[in-house]
Amino acid sequence: MIDIKSMTLAELKEDMEAIGEKAFRAKQIYEWMHQKLARSFDEMTNLSAALRETCKERYEYTSLQVARVQTSAIDGTQKYLFALADGNLIESVLMKYKHGNSVCISSQVGCRMGCAFCASTIDGLERNLKPSEMLDQIYSIQKITGERVSNVVVMGSGEPFDNYDNLLRFLQLLSMEEGLHISQRNITVSTCGLVPKMRELAEEKLQITLALSLHATTDEKRKKLMPIANKYSIGELMEACSDYFEKTGRRITFEYSLVGGVNDTDEDARELIALLKPLNCHVNLIPVNPIKERDFVQSGTDAVLAFKNKLEKNKINCTIRREMGRDIDGACGQLRRRHKEQSLQ
Ligand code: SAH
């Protein structure tokens, strides 16, 4: 069956014609899927019953079931656990800011990158998400809350560049005029640093923000936290970042999760400054969110502030990621893991 929500409008028009339907039907269906956010063909009331039946036989229509929602009492952040059609579970997060609603989506079920501090990767990769399944996370949340989603970050479970073709199609569908039309400037994709894909993305000349999970300033240290560092050096990463900036004009965001006593020392700050000073960039400091499977500890508030001050003194633009939803398993993959554990008991 064809995954209809992952099709471009041109592809759907062609397919409608192939089954003897008028091309304008594609436009109608498209509007139902990507603007009215219909959850099934049955909602598409301006199509004939016969066409709706044909569609059900010909196409797969993805939609998510809410398995669980947790709302933070501290900041209103909502964490959604969604069930996919095959029963797999994924997490998405809604964060409410003054400038609008931001949704953090997953790009894979699980992850195979193996970062030491991350809960999403503990059971490895289950499968890639389809473009439709990435869109569905945003569509479901907008539909449930009745509020417009204005920003999207691909920073949930999974490595988006390990699912590159689906990611590109998702970005195209999310920003298209016939859909939610979210500005590319309001979309951020975070990667642990798959250099060839970073370079490929630069060639697309999109206006999205690229975020790089750096987390360490030497290859030796990075290898201890992130297995991908065995494949690509920090030098290669920096070159790919410069290339992205040159080709797109978009400044890079560097994510740096502060782990107490591991990467938050004076020396780390000095090295980070030396590394980033030549670049036009932004640094997002994330106090590591401890997960119970690992014994990493968060840097103390003083250490985090001191680290930030050092960067700022050297004119490196920097923010501390607000710990949204700390009371609701805010860290990647924690809710899914806990849900699975509880269902096994
Ligand atoms: N695979 C992508 C995107 C998913 S993770 C990537 O690596 O960038 C989003 C960010 O959260 C990454 O910077 C990741 O390293 C970080 N992260 C994961 N688990 C974390 C934890 N327990 N505490 C702090 N940051 C974490």
List the helices and strands and how they pair.
Elements: E1 2-3, H1 9-18, H2 23-34, H3 49-58, E2 59-60, E3 65-71, E4 78-83, E5 89-97, E6 100-104, E7 108-110, E8 125-128, H4 131-145, E9 149-154, H5 164-175, E10 187-191, H6 195-204, E11 209-213, H7 219-225, H8 234-248, E12 252-258, H9 266-276, E13 281-287, H10 301-313, E14 318-320, H11 334-344
Parallel strand pairs: 1-2, 6-9, 9-10, 10-11, 11-12, 12-13, 13-14
Antiparallel strand pairs: 3-4, 4-5, 5-6, 7-8
Helix pairs in contact: 1-2, 4-5, 6-8
Bound molecules: S-adenosyl-L-homocysteine.
What does the model show?
By secondary structure, the chain is α/β, with parallel strands linked by helices. The protein has two domains: 2-60, Orthogonal Bundle (DNA polymerase, domain 1), CATH 1.10.150; 65-344, TIM Barrel (Alpha-Beta Barrel). The chain is built from eleven helices and 14 strands. Strands 3-4-5-6-9-10-11-12-13-14 form a ten-stranded mixed beta sheet. The protein has a two-stranded parallel sheet with strand order 1-2. Strand 13, helix 10 (301-313) and strand 14 form a beta-alpha-beta unit. Helix 4 (131-145) crosses helix 5 (164-175). The longest helix has 15 residues, at 131-145. The chain is globular, with a radius of gyration of 21 Å. The chain starts with a strand and ends with a helix. S-adenosyl-L-homocysteine (SAH) is lined by residues 113, 115, 117-118, 155, 159, 190-192, 213, 255, 257, 286, 288-289, 291, 331-332. The site of S-adenosyl-L-homocysteine has 18 residues, from strand 10 and strand 12.
